[in-house]
Design goal:
Keywords: Cytokinin biosynthesis, Hydrolase. This is Cytokinin riboside 5'-monophosphate phosphoribohydrolase. It catalyses: AMP + H2O = D-ribose 5-phosphate + adenine. It is an enzyme of class 3 (hydrolase). By secondary structure, the chain is an alpha/beta fold. It has a seven-stranded parallel beta sheet, with helices on both faces. It has seven helices and seven strands, in the order H-E-H-E-H-E-E-H-E-H-E-H-E-H.
Length: about 220
């Protein structure tokens, strides 16, 4: 029967609690695929949830969302405030598809008001899978732990061949140049990564250059 739970087999080592968790994970993946399977060209925008509406990050991400929407490219964000809200807001003003993949947190994060397609996730890894799976490029604005986690997970997936090479732009020289230079100075010099690994990233000054890089590589 559709939707019926199958009890764990004797000796399987899978508890009922774990089976329920597996079902929830599977359900989140099915929902995401059903909603985004026909998406077409899209980018994901990452960045801090804590930036204010009058910050350059917000204004830039909003402009980038609009530029991408006007070029026929959908915008995916984490669905929350700050840079995420700005990207969705720009996509909507550019009459494009604005997608928010929200995460359920102890202190509830509500979807921003500029999301057209809102999908809520309980698990970070299923949400990150969807943020990556349906995007053809990525714009990473300044942010904290979550943003840096998303950036390095992307780099790891491409470096290890689990994800096809795709454009990744770090928007904001002042914020990202130090990290890029540290990777070159420390990681490359010590042999922890190859010089070519840094070619996966491009540090850009603003949304106009970001849009040029993303659209150029998406359209190839």
């Amino acid at each position: 029967m559709s939707g019926a739970r199958i009890p764990p087999a004797a000796g399987s080592g899978i508890s009922l609690e774990e089976q329920h968790r597996i079902e929830r994970i599977s359900g989140e993946l099915r929902t995401g695929v059903a909603e985004l399977g026909d998406l077409g060209p899209a980018i994901s925008i990452f960045g801090s949830a804590r930036v204010a509406e009058d910050s350059w990050e917000y204004r830039s991400a909003q402009s980038l969302g609009k530029l991408m929407a006007e070029a026929g490219v959908s915008v995916i964000t984490g669905g929350g405030p700050g840079v995420m809200e700005a990207g969705n807001r720009g996509a909507r003003s550019g009459e494009g598809r604005s997608i928010g993949l929200n995460i359920t947190l102890p202190h509830e994060q509500l979807a921003n008001p500029y999301v057209d397609t809102d999908i809520a996730f309980r698990y970070f890894f299923t949400r990150k899978f969807m943020l990556i799976r349906y995007a053809m490029g990525f714009a990473i604005y300044p942010g904290g732990m979550g943003t840096i986690d998303e950036l390095f997970e992307l780099l790891t997936l491409v470096q290890t061949g689990k994800l096809q090479p795709c454009p990744m732009v770090l928007v904001g020289h002042d914020y990202w140049s130090g990290l890029y230079n540290w990777l070159a100075r420390e990681c490359v010099t010590r042999g922890y990564i190859e010089p070519a690994d840094l070619d996966l990233l491009e540090v850009v000054p603003d949304e106009e250059v970001a849009a040029e890089v993303l659209l150029d590589k998406i359209r190839r």
